[in-house]
Structure formats: structure tokens, C-alpha cells
Specification:
Bound molecules: guanosine-5'-monophosphate, zinc ion
Distance between the termini: 34 Å
Mean pLDDT: 96
Number of strands: 5
Structural class: alpha+beta
Shape: globular
Strand order of the largest sheet: 1-2-3-5-4
Low-confidence stretches: none
Number of helices: 3
Oligomer: single chain
Radius of gyration: 17 Å
Largest sheet: 5 strands, antiparallel
CATH architecture: 2-Layer Sandwich
């Protein structure tokens, strides 16, 4: 689908909703997030509507990834960030709230308030191996 009339990001692409655009090319547009996690938080979207990572066309995904890399480079160079998180949420269970594929480019600054949303700790090796077997399709 190239545009969804009910999609707010399609409306931004069509100029029907305002956005502060920071980068664009043939396949992508990048604009500032209205609820920034840190200073400079931007979103990269494909011009063609697709719901999420599972449905985006490979050429659009490639273009979005390259645009995210461009922004990551600028975040370091122009904003003086110390790092960057590049995040995609796929599905409501994974925090996706806008169902037009997008990548968050979130500048990170030493001492900023963001924290990992999980507590790293050792997993059960048997369970890790079982999940791996399912992931690589060898459990049939
Ligand atoms: P998600 O939760 O789907 O991963 O990310 C959606 C993002 O879109 C959120 O960070 C939210 O702040 C941002 N957002 C939602 N509505 C608008 C809007 O109308 N304009 C802009 N610029 N960002 C939006
Ligand atoms: Zn859309």
C-alpha cells in the first residue's frame, strides 16, 4: 500500500499534518519526534506506507536504514551526542503505537536519564538452546 488515509505519518508525508523534517530522499523522510526521549530524537519513515518490520518492502527497509545511519552520523557531529540508539518497535506488544514503519534515532548523552528496559542477567542455557532450535527451524 502506498498511503493509508487513516495513518498520521502518511498525513505528514502528504503535508496534511505539520512535521519538522530533517532529512529526505526518494524513499524516506525523517522528522523530529514530538515526544522526544532525548534532545534530537528523530523518526525515519518510508514514503510508502507499510505497517511494520514484517511488511515493509526490502528496498524501503534498506533506504530507511541508510537514512538512520545518516542521522546517527549527524547526531554525533552536530549535536555532540556521545552515542545513539536506533530502535524499531514491531507490534503493540513491542510498544509500537504508530502503525507506519519507523525507526527511532535517539541521541544519547553521558548521564542522560534513559535506562535499559530489561535487567540483564544470565539465562537458562537449556531454554536458550530450545529457543534457538525453534528460531532456526530445527524442531519439527
Ligand atoms: P512507536 O511508539 O510506534 O515506536 O513510535 C511512535 C512515535 O511517534 C512516538 O515516539 C511518538 O512520540 C511519535 N509521534 C506520534 N504522533 C506524532 C506526530 O503527530 N508527529 C510527530 N512528529 N511524532 C509523532
Ligand atoms: Zn502511513
Amino acid at each position: 500500500m502506498s498511503a493509508d488515509p487513516d495513518c498520521i505519518f502518511c498525513k505528514i508525508l502528504a503535508g496534511e499534518l505539520p512535521a519538522t523534517i530533517v532529512d529526505q530522499d526518494e524513499h524516506t523522510v525523517s522528522f523530529m519526534d514530538i515526544h522526544p526521549a532525548t534532545r534530537g530524537h528523530a523518526l525515519v519513515i518510508p514514503r510508502a506506507h507499510s505497517r511494520d518490520l514484517l511488511s515493509i518492502e526490502p528496498n524501503d527497509l534498506e533506504a530507511v536504514a541508510l537514512a538512520a545511519k545518516r542521522l546517527a552520523e549527524r547526531v554525533n557531529e552536530y549535536l555532540g551526542a556521545d552515542g545513539v540508539n536506533v530502535i524499531n518497535s514491531c507490534g503493540a506488544a513491542a510498544w509500537q503505537t504508530v502503525f507506519h514503519f519507523h525507526i527511532h534515532v535517539i541521541p544519547r548523552y553521558k548521564g542522560d536519564p534513559l535506562r535499559l528496559p530489561w535487567v540483564p542477567g544470565p539465562g537458562d542455557p537449556v531454554e536458550i538452546a530450545a529457543a534457538a532450535a525453534q528460531l532456526n527451524g530445527s524442531t519439527d
